[in-house]
Amino acid sequence: MLTFLIWCLLFIVCWPLALLALILWPVIWLISLPLRLLGITFEAVFALLRAVLLLPARLLGYRDADERRRP
């Protein structure tokens, strides 16, 4: 909703720029999709590396502060 209101304000102030933004928005969204997938992939890889590196400590009985609070 906020994005729409900002676009309406832009349309009132400078309608050619608002129309250009309206046309280019799907193109920018399509270009950003591979970058989002790449970000998700790197996040998963780093989570896997963290789990593998902390596995020996977990096997020896180390518990995170979050796990200690759980009943």
Describe the protein.
- The protein is mostly helical.
- It has one domain (2-69).
- It has three helices and no strands.
- It has helices at 2-13, 15-59, 65-69.
- The chain is elongated.
- 0% of the residues are buried.
Give the CA-CA distance, first to last residue: 41 Å
Number of strands: 0
**Strand fraction band?**
under 5%
The secondary-structure class comes to mainly alpha
Taken in chain order, the helices and strands follow as HHH
Ranges where pLDDT stays below 50 over 5 or more residues in a row are: none
The biggest beta sheet, please?
Answer: none
- Into how many domains do the coordinates divide? 1
General shape:
elongated
Task: Give the integer mean of the pLDDT values.
Answer: 88
What is the share of helical residues?
over 70%
Spatial extent as radius of gyration:
23 Å
Topology of this structure?
Layout: H1 2-13, H2 15-59, H3 65-69
Helix pairs in contact: 1-2
Task: Summarize this structure briefly.
Helix content is 87%, strand content 0%. It is mostly helical.
Name some characteristics of this structure.
71 residues; mainly alpha
